[in-house]
Amino acid sequence: YSKVGRCIRSVGDDHILARIVGVSESKVVLIVFGISAIMATVAGLSISIDVGMTPQMGFRPFLMAVVAVILAGSFRVGRLVISSFFVAAVQHFVGWQLGTKWQEAVIFAMFLVAVTIRSESRRWRSHLEA
Q1: Could you say which of 76, 98, 101, 104 is the most buried, measured as most Cβ atoms within 10 Å of its Cβ?
Q2: Once rounded to an integer, what is the mean pLDDT over residues 1-27?
Q3: How far apart are the two ends of the chain, measured CA to CA in Å?
């Protein structure tokens, strides 16, 4: 029932008529975006407090995703899917054979090998072209 609420309802019902009456559609959309962002933040923080989240909880999946993207070499969906499956398969195989404490070390070693091979191949290509 406030002025902002009436403006939001008017833009939601008929944005052309609201613009004719003098309501700034862009300002109303910005206000709605801000309100929804605040509500999503409060909900996310409430859930994180409830389950006991810590800042480093998403680091492992993020690291595996970065390794998969670097192994793919490009942002083609097919290559990304194949490299993701490869990283997951290697990770589970290492966990099965050596134990879960070695999973991250082997994935990181795989990452170092891929980066080294890629840089060496670029260096050799530049020497061959010169």
Answers
A1: 104
A2: 87
A3: 73
Block residue for tokens 């995703």: 65
> Is residue 127 predicted with pLDDT exceeding 80?
no
Q: Cα(129)–Cα(7) distance, rounded to whole angstroms? A: 64
pLDDT exceeds 90 at position 39: yes
Residue 80 has pLDDT above 80, yes or no: yes
- Round to whole Å and give the CA distance between 130 and 125: 9
**CA diameter of the chain:** 73
Query: Tokens 């002025």 map to which residue?
Result: 3
Closest by CA position to 61, among listed 73, 52, 69: 69
pTM exceeding the 0.85 threshold for the entire prediction: no
101 HSE (CA, 13 A, CB side): 0
